[in-house]
Amino acid sequence: MNLKSYITKITFAAIATMLSGVAAQATPITVPNASFETPTSPSETATNPNLITGWVFNVKGGSYYGTEAISGHFSSAGASSGNNAAFINNDDPSVTDTITSAASLGTIAPLTTYTLTLAIGNHNGTVLYDNPGNVSFSLLANGVAFATKTVTNGTVPESTFEDFSLTYTTPSSGSVIGENLTIQMASLPETGTAFQPAFDNVTLDATSVAVVPEPPTAALLISGGFALFWLMRQRRIGRAIYAAFLLSVAGLSLANAQVIKTLPLDDQTVYHLKVGADKVTTLVFPQPITALEGTGITGDPKIKADMLLSYHAGDRFFSVRALADPATADLNVIINRKVYVLELATNKEPFQSVTFYPADEPPAQTAGQPNVGPSRLLGLLDKAKAYPLLAEQYPEMVSQIDKAEPFTQTLYEGFHVILAKVFRFDAEDALIFQVEFVNETDKPIYYIPQSLAVRVGSGVYWSALSDASGIMTAGEKDPKTGKITPGHSDGYFVICGTPHGGRNHLSVQNAFNVLVFRQENS
Questions:
Q1: Which of 202, 265, 290, 485 could form a disulfide with 34 if both were Cys (CB 3.0 to 4.6 A apart)?
Q2: How many structural domains are present in the chain?
Q3: 252 SS3 class
Q4: 5-41 tens-digit pLDDT
Q5: What is the mean pLDDT of the chain?
Q6: Which helix (H) or strand (E) holds 240?
Q7: Rounded CA gap, 513 and 169, in Å?
Q8: What 8-state DSSP symbol labels residue 228?
Q9: Cα separation, 370 vs 366, whole angstroms
């Protein structure tokens, strides 16, 4: 192959690479029986988990579940669709009851934004079974949740349905990529009476995320640029084509910068943000939003304004879309007694994603195993231990920590383990587990603290750091009756990332089994 033909080959390979990108569009993923219209007549059961086509219930304690007529239990259809909705009677507020899509909705793709939306219903009345209680909905990879949104009791107005959405962007690689994707809704534990959440109109969209070319691709573009320049000098191509190449390369590097922004959050800065009428701009903050105040913008489509706001109380994000062009609006975002000023204006090239991070911290990693050393893990462990004090006196220090108190038990011969608390530090992809060892014998039980782990579905996650003695305190045996009062001892351990070096994407709402390995007393 001579030089000219070689350069020509590189040139058109580069041009093909440049032209291969297309605008990302949301693709609906079919959710079978998404509005629970099959069976057509409302049906309920306490024994048939496959009552609803396309879904599987896991309801404990003999409680009833199934479908119900929307018109008979709600004054307004709200965000629901069709005639029926699914429901769960959670008679035991100490357990989690779930409904999960029965079949895989496809395999999880890398660099893809998944948006799960569903309507949650709050029944007529305020007595037994009328309120939904605390609920959650999740995206699952092979049955293990990797993204979860929780809706607390009282959020949904009485006697109607309201839409809620969960958005998650997958990394370029990691443990969830290629796994089977399913959806799960859950009625969560809550102190009080029995609850009955209703679910309807489940939709799922997937949008591929545009990325900057990897080094080999960038090298191809650069070499193609030199080739195009050489051919131009040889009068083989026109100057217009070469100019188009340069603009394409610039576009590849600037495309994300034009629509995706990452900014430090500073209450002394006025942020001028571009929004559009045909695209949604989503703004994400590092902490839950306390309140919003603005002019020229509304959250109610029935109220006339130049811009429409989509926001649910307690979320860390909201979305904005212009209803007119040109249009402007002012919006003040209040977080932890600080006000952040946004000035919004329409533009033909609007921002589509704006992520704010604390001004004194670098942006958090979004993919891959964070570089977290032992000293950092020790710091997280100390923060978890001090959580009650920090939450009371310095709430801003724990606002980004997810916390759950599952009080689930893992049973072993002679002892059991109570999972008292779970903390998640998302930036470090770390979870801290506080456990209680209950020794049911009158002799000490020895275990290996460095080998503490949790099982989630079929996956096992080993501790990176532990703070546990390795000895379960012996119970006390009554010499008269022989009855043993169990011994109690505590421990902590930390999980960070996965054994393969990726992010674990675990939630504090996952169902964890604590793994403990005995050792003989030497």
A1: 202
A2: 4
A3: helix
A4: 544 554 444 444 444 444 456 789 999 999 999 998 8
A5: 81
A6: helix 239-259
A7: 27
A8: H
A9: 9
